[in-house]
Amino acid sequence: MIERRAESGGPAGRRRPEPTGHGHGHGHGHDHRSAPASRQVKVVLAVALAPFAIAALVGVLVLYPFGHHQRSGADLGFGQQPVNAEVVAAAASPCTRGGPAADGCVALRVTLQDGPAAGRTIEQVVPTDPSTPRFAVGDDVVLSYTGGSTTDPASYQVVDYQRGGPLLVLALVFAAAVLVLGRWQGFAALVALGLSFVVLVGFVLPAILAGEDPLLVAVVGAGLIMFAVLYLTHGFSARTSTAVLGTLLSLGLIGLLSALFAAWTRLTGLDEDTASLIGALGTPIDARGLLLAGVVIGALGVLDDVTVTQTSAVWELRRANPALSWRRLYLAGLRIGRDHVSSAVNTLVLAYAGAALPLLLAYSLSGRGFGEIVGSQAVAQEVVRTLVGSIGLVAAVPITTAIAAAVAVRETPEPVTTDDSVATRVRRAVATGATTATVFRDELSGPTRRRTGPRRPG
Prior knowledge:
This is YibE/F family protein. With 458 residues, this protein is an alpha+beta fold.
């Protein structure tokens, strides 16, 4: 039995005309191939994106600190060197020499695994209060070496655990999951992730440390990441170019709004960590610009997800029904986008709330009112970061959908196939927005009959 739904909003009993071709509708797989774009579409997209791509490349050349010598941690007073070690013994001990044994400290004997005194065993006394990690025999730990005598235990301090092994296993599991599900496209996504890391470490951080405007550096770096990641992951096509253009416009809106509201709310960006970093560097870094740079880079990943999803949805709707006009294609894509953006905004808010959870706990115990807490520098900057990013996500849906619909309706439709599977009929019904009477045709007998009520089983 084949279901055909009448066009939504039309009179009862009136069917939407089928596109010319085979009488079984349009069936396509859910792959990422798109129909060939017309020459006009390619030219328009190239003209629209070329200035942004050129600006990103020129920005990298202008902002990269060629010839700048960045001072090392030792030059800045961060001369402590990490040394790996293993805890071989632990026993209760007084916190000070000659003090009472019930002070609540632990004496650790640790064997140094590297550093200037590798193989030597030294003793370290650590407190057991709640703010200090609990170390035990067999733990792989990290010591901070101050650069003094290599045989003096006072030159070392236990500061953390070694986590290289577990993190490497987690990274391998993540990569395997991406490859199993995504195959070659998953491999391209991993390569793109590596390129993002290279841009951040090789361009964004050195340029900011050299004193360049952090917001400008972040915009250029985000643009470079976006072009590289999207085209590498999804290929060179009109569909990908549409997602890139939607991401660019939405990212520009986020940058503009973040600068406006950071200035309006008088955010300084000078939290404790940032103030300490600027003081140690001795370089005139714009703290507010650093805050805005974090907003732009943090929003880029979620924006990519929204714009690519919206573009793919519009293309699938177009493939399911090539007769859809720009307006109907836009409205259908927008309906899909509303569901996606609601979950994406919630994800962004919860991500920021989770990162700031210790801060929120501290403020909840301060006895201050809600307005005072939200208006404080540390919380207000997270509020601005969250809301501006969410506004950009919301705006990305209509912006990208409008561009995608305008491009999709000008592409060459794919040939009609004879596939009339259940998935194809569901896709066709969704694309046509059918909500009224249903027509059933018996494939064996041929006659057509109309039913407006529910279909009986069997």
